[in-house]
Amino acid sequence: MRASNPEMTRFSGHQFTNRVVYPMAGMMVIMIIVVIGVLVASAHQQNRLSVEGSTRLATTALQVKAREVGRNLRDYTIRPDVYEHLHDGIDLGWAVTEGNVGANIHNDLGYELVFVVAPGDKTIYALIDGVPTRADAFDVMPRGLRDLLHVAAIQPHPTTSLIKSGKDIYVVAANGIVPPSIDRARINPRELTMLVFAKRLDQKFLDDMGHDYLLNDLSIALNSENAKDAFIPLMTQNRVYLGTISWSAPRPGDQLLNFVIPPLAIALLILAAFSALVVRNARISSSALEASASRVTHLAHHDALTGLPNRILFREHLDSALSPTVLGSAEVAVICLDLDSFKEVNDSLGHAAGDQLLQQVSQRLQACVSYNDTVARLGGDEFAVIQIGANQPHDAEELSRRLIESIRSAFVVEDQTLHIGVSIGIALADATDRTADTLLKNADIALYRAKQGGRATYRIFEAQMDAELQERRALEYDLRQAVLRNELELHYQPLIDLELHAVAAVEALVRWRHPRRGLVSPSDFIPMAEETGLIVAIGEWVLETACREALKWDRLRIAVNLSPVQFKNHELVETVRQVLQRTGLEPERLELEVTESILINDTAAALEILNGLKALGVKIAMDDFGTGYSSLGYLNSFPFDKIKIDRSFIGDLSDTEKSGAIVKSVIGLGQSLKMVTTAEGVETSEQAAFLREQGCDQVQGFYFSKPVGAAELSAFISSWNARSILEKMHTDAAA
Ligand code: C2E
Ligand code: MG
Ligand code: MG
User: Which atom of ligand 1 approaches the CA of 595 most closely?
Assistant: First the structure.
């Protein structure tokens, strides 16, 4: 048997991971990357800004230093005494001894080198670290100084440059010695005596600069490789590279990162742990959800009692079996099953036993079908099978026989052995109409026919069954209307007392005057009324109408037929009592005709009702005697007032001796049990004569009168009585 369709649209754990967990994790990773990226970028930016700022500061510091050297120099070059003693030859006494341009320049102003260069680039005075020497300025500063002096000679203000001497770099300022009293424009620059001050960029210089401008770790390197992260290149005036001042610039970005990253890392860790927890919990609940969703799906598609697929899943399987892509040449049959007498088991043993029976039935059904087939419980005691067969209808018929056989064997429920049966309707999918609805409907129609055909059998759907069913449905609808529209009427047939030659009773027989079909016989609509339960209302109407009508016929008994269905209702006794009360008919004038079938199923209940009726004072007749199960024991256990011998025996009287023998013995039986015997269906005088000879009490049949309307019956009674009197007079006269 096929399992339920696994392609259910449900939100699986896998989908949950794909649709929720991965995007969430992705988003978080992206967010973290963005946050870290922004942080790092802004840290870099801050670092860069800090380097730029400190570079500007360092540059400014060097420029300020250069300007300071220039200013200090200028203080000397404009002095008239300097001009007087250093121009045109050096006055060493004045310069050194008197200390005008001597050690004081080194000691007070901090210049390591002082040169006085006369026209023709002649060093006439050199002071190194405050000590006068005979050094040539151009030997001390072989590169750069000459160019500086040439530029400075044409400039009124001191000109500065960075110049290398040995391994040291100096801030060098040069200016011509010209006091304000002399018009500089008139002097040939070549004739100028130049004064040079040089400040060594040594560690002390750098420390002071660092102190003043808040620059850390300043150092000089002669090549750029040793430079720290922040540096400025040192160039001569002619942009010749000399070396680099570098320092450790503050890195606020790094500080920011150092400050932010540990708490951020902790926060991210917590966030990651939390997210993992959330995802884990979500997965657990999604798995639980998935499990309960699949439980719900299973419940929604299966019958809780038997575990078989239910109607919904059955439809799904049927739809897919019928879809042209699924099966090649195989054909689909829908087999509908309905248990016979299940209701009786349920009613008599209770629902728990009924449930057990259904479970056992479902197991047997499953054991009969093949793996490809689907067994489903459609509801109540209705089951259905989808059979895929290569040789239809043969396969479906064979399976149906197996199913009937398997249900036929006894069931044991609550220590009781039960026998039930199953009726089966088969519908085959044909090329023209392959819809599930049609197949199910057709199988149902065939099932109905199987039930009608005596149960525990199968029928294959044929097109005309549908038409018949439609017809039946229409009739059923009409019958309901008939009761409401008063389309029913009663005909009456007299029962003649053979000894008295008088009308002893009349039997009320119902007819239906259908607006289109005309007069419908009870055998055409009573079974339907019994199936639909309408018989209860019809029966009551017949009883009341017959009793009321009977009042017209002085002292005559009125016989009314009761259906076995009316016997299932315990209200029957009360109904009869009320009708008698309402109509005022004496109870002993009412004769109720019942058939043996009322005693078959629940004998005790039927006997109880019969006794109740008897207690009202009415007569009870056993109708159609000899056609049913005819257990003579019944006649013993309940004192019927009358036996009505079925008309089939009377009709056969002239043909078979057997019928005569049976009629004779039933009459004898009636006599010995003190019951009135009535023969039905007397159509000939021979039959009447035979019955009279045998001692039959009453006769009823077309020979005397067909069932007729009330008025006609009244006329019949009068004429019969008159004829009887005449006959009596004749017989008396003959005697
Ligand atoms: P039944 O109770 O055995 O009624 C006798 C039937 O035999 C009647 O058929 C009657 O017309 C027919 N009959 C009488 N004499 C002759 C005869 O000489 N030859 C032939 N061939 N038939 C004869 P009807 O009226 O068609 O009723 C058929 C059955 O329908 C009745 O059989 C009875 O079982 C049922 N029926 C009729 N009326 C009622 C009713 O009001 N309630 C119930 N529950 N059943 C009814
Ligand atoms: Mg009858
Ligand atoms: Mg009868």
Answer: 34
Give the whole-angstrom CA distance, residue 632 versus residue 430: 53
- What's the rounded Cα separation, in Å, for the pair 503 and 550? 13
* Sign for the pseudo-dihedral over CA of 724, 728, 734, 735: positive
CA 535 to ligand 1: nearest atom: 44
Q: Whose CA is nearest to atom 10 of ligand 1?
A: 707
> Which residues on adjacent β-strands are paired with residue 508?
492, 560
Q: Is 146 exposed, middle or buried (0-12, 13-18, 19+ CB in 10 A)?
A: middle
Q: In which order are the strands placed within the sheet that holds 131-133?
A: 131-133, 122-128, 113-118, 194-200, 168-176, 159-165
pLDDT above 90: residue 484: no
| Domain edges within the chain | 6-54+252-298, 311-461, 485-726
Closest residue by CA, ligand 1 atom 20: 681
Answer left, alpha or beta for residue 99, where phi above 0 means left and psi between -120 and 50 means alpha.
Answer: left
Task: Look up the pTM and report it.
Answer: 0.57
Residue 158 C-beta-side C-alpha neighbours within 13 Å: 25
**What's the pLDDT score for residue 621?**
96
Distance 684 CA to ligand 3 centre (A): 17
User: Percent of the chain at pLDDT above 90?
Assistant: 53
* CB 275, CB 31: distance < 8 Å: no
Whole-angstrom Cα distance, residue 323 to residue 327? 8
Q: What is the pLDDT of residue 291?
A: 87
pLDDT digits (tens, 9 = 90+) for 626-657: 887 656 777 777 889 999 999 999 988 877 77
Most distant pair of Cα atoms in the chain: their distance: 213
The closest ligand to the CA of 565 turns out to be 1
Helix (H, G, I), strand (E, B) or coil at 643: strand
Q: Which two tokens stand for residue 270?
A: 């917590």
Report the nearest atom of ligand 1 relative to the CA of 493: 14
Q: What is the pLDDT of residue 16?
A: 67
Burial state string for 119-134 with b = 16 or more CB within 10 A and e = fewer than 16: eeeebbbbbbebebee
Closest ligand to 625 CA? 3
Average pLDDT for 454-483: 89
Q: What is the pLDDT of residue 6?
A: 42
Indicate the residue type of 298.
H
Q: Is the pLDDT of residue 732 over 90?
A: no
Q: Which CATH number fits domain 311-461: 3.90.930.12, 3.30.2000.30, 3.30.70.270, 3.40.50.300?
A: 3.30.70.270
Quick one: average pLDDT of 442-468?
90
Q: Is 595:565 a contact under the CB 8 Å cutoff?
A: no
- For residue 237, the model assigns a pLDDT of 80
CA atoms within 13 A on the CB side of 593: 22
Asked, colleague to colleague, whether 311-461 and 485-726 share their fold, the answer is: no
* CA atoms within 13 A of residue 386's CA, in its CB half-sphere: 29
Does the CB atom of residue 511 touch ligand 1 within 6 A? Answer: no
Tell me the CATH architecture of domain 485-726: Alpha-Beta Barrel (3.20)
Mean per-residue pLDDT of the chain: 89
105-116 pLDDT per residue, tens: 999 999 999 999
